[in-house]
Amino acid sequence: MNFSKSSPHHRLNNDLEAGGSQPSTAEDDESSSGPFDITSTKNASIERLRRWRQAALVLNASRRFRYTLDLKREEERKQRIGTIRAHVQAIRAAYLFKDAGNRENGTLELRPPPSGDFGIGQEQLTSMSREHNVSALEIYGGVKGLSNLLKTNLEKGIQGDDTDLVKRRNAFGSNVYPRKKGRTFWMFLWEAWQDLTLIILMVAAVASLALGIKTEGIKEGWYDGGSIAFAVILVIVVTAVSDYRQSLQFQNLNEEKQNIHMEVIRGGRRIEISIYDVVVGDVVPLNIGDQVPTDGVLISAHSLAVDESSMTGESKIVHKGSKDPFLMSGCKIADGSGTMMVTSVGINTEWGLLMASISEDTGEETPLQVRLNGVATFIGIVGLSVALVVLVVLLGRYFTGHSKDADGRVQFQKGITKVSDAVDDAIKIVTVAVTIVVVAVPEGLPLAVTLTLAYSMRKMMADKALVRRLSACETMGSATTICSDKTGTLTLNQMAVVEAYVGEKKTDHPENKSELSPVLYSLLIEGIAQNTNGGVYASEGGVNVEVSGSPTEKAILSWGVKLGMNFEAIRSESSVLYVFPFNSEKKRGGAAVRLPDGQVHIHWKGAAEIILEACTQYIDAAGQFVAMNEDKMIFFKKAIEDMAATSLRCVAIAYRSYESEKVPSNEEELVEWTLPADDLVLLAIVGIKDPCRPGVKDAVRLCQNAGVKVRMVTGDNLQTAKAIAFECGILDSNADAAEPNLIEGKTFRALPDKEREKVADQISVMGRSSPNDKLLLVQALRKSGHVVAVTGDGTNDAPALHEADIGLAMGISGTEVAKESSDIIILDDNFASVVKVVRWGRSVYANIQKFIQFQLTVNVAALIINVVSAVSSGQVPLNAVQLLWVNLIMDTLGALALATEPPTDHLMHRNPVGRREPLITNIMWRNLLIQALYQVSVLLVLNFRGRTLLHLEGDSKVHAEKVKNTLIFNAFVLCQVFNEFNARKPDEFNVFKGITKNKLFIGIVGITVVLQVLIIEFLGKFTKTVKLNWSMWLISIIIGVLSWPLAAIGKLIPVPETPLISFFRRRRNS
Question: Is the pLDDT assigned to residue 540 strictly greater than 90?
């Protein structure tokens, strides 16, 4: 009854079901013999996915595989994208050929300017953008001339008021493209009809209807066939409604995924808007990892490199500048920074055309789906075999004269019984056998996964987690370790400069300008203003100041503003020659600027100890340049350590002068230029405070109690990381704060592969790590058998996010490249939200197990009751209509009730579920066998001894038989209703705990009971039942209620920890 309490790593190494300590990789999956043995679908091959579908026993493929990847459509989609890309390239090549001819002849065709609010029309803009027509751009007066035509200020952007936006949308369109409409309800209704067994039942119903009307007349003869037809239609409608509701949830979530938020400059301010709200003329800042939102032209660029593979299909990085200023929508910024002006939006862009011409298939496999198809296939084969046995036995008994009706008369007598009567009776027998197949083959089992995933995804949105890949939901429930960033995830990302070493002196009031010499002050604010990708917006009169950029940039810019920095004035006084954007590998960023007097200053900013190592001088309190001797180097290093020990992020600011004539004069040389980073003069070392998030310590403790180890992986100083780790509860004592628990990225990187795997398992904190170190850690942990979740926000985190079992990108600070490589986006960047995802992941798995336990109990009981009755007496107590009603309770309604259970704290008090652990645990086997044996025993006793036990000897044989069979049907349904409560808590005694939180469960149970009363009391002609008196109802209820104490007693029976299936495997192997 108890779950294993050993550590997740220990459990993985000794998990026979998981195949020992070997990691689960794509290669293992490929080589494993079972088609349903896919532990991870993240990188599974198309052939592998095709294999499991071909192996599944399926009655309705269009419904069963609806939410899986459409393999045929995926291949067609790839071919179509290839065709469109080739078409784009051909158009561009034709233009280049034509342009070369025009240049040779000295002619260039331009369409006449339009009449309207703007000096250029959409057709001209689209033509220029698609053809990358630099000549046309030059004729319009370059970017400056084009901005005048579009009424855009290149520095302050468009006005951005409602009138201006409406004019631009009317003239140039909106940044949306037509999407193919989702499926209508009627399509789902049509798909629900495709079930082979339901089609057979409808044919049988029509035949029964025709024969019934022929023999008994239309008044009485339509009941048999009509009741089956009505039951089938009800199953189809309920199924279609359930599936349609799921599809609407997936559509809404998919729209949310595509709604990217980005920055634009309007009215001189940086504001965040939806990608759908971008208009022609907008000025858009671009940084590493951003997605180009529209087609546009470059205003300015610093080492800007673009990955155009999404449009061209070639993974070549293209450098952008004045010679190639055109940017294509949908491409990613691979390096550098810049600003662009929007020239085309929506369907007028190449990306819009591409997306409008293909329908994005959001379906995908999940490991649980694949495994449940295996379970459904196995149960289906058993059910088909049982149905075949019932069919053969009933037909054999009927045609050999061993079947008797309710009055005891032989049903078939050779040469006497009419052909129509024999056919009618044979149809009824076939109908029962086919209905057994409907009940036995659990089509709803794999779909229960998508139902619980759709429900979980919707609820996770409220918990600030946007799921990009369905399978990530359930995989998160198996996570054994979380590798988390520090900044913004464990901390608030609300940074402020609280301490500084300026002019060799420490100051606790860093905004005090009076302590700085004029020389130092001038150089410092020049470095702050010029070496940044952030911005400062001051309103009229300078009352309100808005600072934009990354949290670190904002902290340093805010400090500059407090020192009296006039951002716009300093930016306009000197010109930026070259920018080296901040790089997480180098951990520094720089800029070369030319002053009005022709001097060139190179400013650097970055990790304090890295910048300090490159400094050969510093400026003292008097403003004098002093050589950096060994004592001063030790002094500044100690200063960094002291600040880091108090959990401050340490950033150094330095500069150097440079000979003007050595600066490259043309664009090609500038691109290749390596910005000098030696002989620097130290200006300041600042300590930036980023407080821990409230509640993060509790969240970390919750993970640890749940058997999930939290590891901090940060680019910050090891001392800073250590201090934060103590605050968050990742480290408990100083004894933990030693290698290999606490390790630097370069130390880990230098280890041999085998040693790295060994050390990786012990790491709690990794400081000064690069994105590649994070990737190495993920690989090492996965090889050790861990299921790894990783958080990331930068472009360089993409490989680690892709490699991990679950990649978690940050919604606020994350780049588009990181988000696209991720499986789940944490919308509030909060570690507590990551822990909520773990809860939901475990809830998905637990809900599926509850549903399986419930459904298998119904399957086993219904099959055994009908088979035993058929073989022994030639009659079945549960007829076709009754079985269809049971199927509806078990399949669609049962899935809705149990698959939407909210997560409980109990889920976080046990270890993660291994990905190869059996779906049906020993606890579930115990529970379902106890309930099934109880139901079978009671109902078979009623079937064979019911007349005596119920005191029906005085009634006519026909009426007594009907009352007995009605009681059996009623008791069977009520057993399922009461057992639904047991299924809620497979390993807890209190099955009612938290029941008020699941209104849907209460509603479905209530509806089931009300409909059952209506069926028994008013719809007897359809279901072949009779009204029951109060004593019979009381007996039915008592039989159902007894399943509660029986379940509680059953939970006292201990079960072995080794999965039941392992015993069979051992015997087979021996």
Answer: no
